[in-house]
C-alpha cells in the first residue's frame, strides 16, 4: 500500500531528473512502454551483445501480460522503473487515480521480478504537485529525459542516430521505446547510437548509477574550490556531423 499523507499541504522537494551534472562521459539509455514481445527481447539481445545495461520503465498491464519478459529484463542486470499501470496521462488525474496507477504497476513489477521499483517516469512526461508528493512519500525518484530517439524532424533511423550522437553530453538521459507503437526505427537506430558513443568514450550506465555519479561529483565539488572545476558543457565540443554520417554509412556498408 502506498503511503499518502497530507497531500496538498506542503510543496514537495522532488525535482524531475532529465540529466545529471558530471564531466564523466556517461549516458543512461532508457526504454518506455514495455515489456512487449515484439521489441523487448530484441533489445535485450542487442544490449547483451553491446555489453551495456539500461533502465526500462514498464507499464503494469504489460508486465502482468508478459511477466517472463519483465523477469528476463531484471535477470540480465537492467533496472526496471514504474511507468504507471495503464499508461494513463497523470497531468490532470485525481489523487486516487495517480495512487492506483503507481501502486498497481508496482505490484505487477514486484510479482514478476521480486524487486520493488524506486524510479518513476510519468507517461508523456506530464507531472504535477500531487504526483510529486506521492512519489516523495513513497521514495520514488521522478525520472524524465533530455533526448528522445524518436523525433519528427528526424524521419529515418540514421537521422535519429545522428541527432542523438550530435546532441549527447555527459550525464544525458536518452529515451527510446520498446512497446505500444511501432518501434522498429528505434531498434535500427540503437546499434548506431551505442557503437558511436562508445567510440567517443561514453560509458552506458543505469539511472541509479547515473544518480550516484552525480552525488560523487557533488561531494568532490564541495571538497574543492568551485572556481577550479571544469565546466562540462564547455568541455564537450559538438561532434562533427559529417564525420559521424560518414562513419555511420560505413557501419551500414552504404559508402562506396
Ligand atoms: Zn510511455
Explain what you see.
- By secondary structure, this protein is an alpha/beta fold.
- It is built from 10 helices and 8 strands.
- It has helices at residues 40-50, 60-65, 67-75, 95-113, 129-137, 157-167, 184-199, 207-223, 232-235, 241-251, and strands at 26-32, 55-58, 79-82, 119-120, 141-142, 147-148, 172-177, 203-205.
- Strands 1, 2, 3, 6, 7 and 8 form a 6-stranded parallel β-sheet that branches. Strands 4-5 form a two-stranded parallel ribbon.
- The radius of gyration is 19 Å and the shape is globular.
- Zinc ion is lined by residues 32-33, 83, 87, 123.
N/C terminus separation: 61 Å
Computed over alpha carbons, the radius of gyration is: 19 Å
Q: Please bin the fraction of helical residues.
A: 40-55%
Structure annotation, total helices: 10
Low-confidence stretches: 230-242, 251-256
Per DSSP, what share of the residues sits in E-state strands of 2 or more residues? 5-15%
Q: Enumerate the distinct ligands.
A: zinc ion
Number of extended strands: 8
How would a textbook summarize the main sheet?
6 strands, parallel
Name the overall outline.
Answer: globular
How are helices and strands ordered from N to C?
Answer: EHEHHEHEHEEHEHEHHH
Structural class: alpha/beta
Give the overall average pLDDT.
87
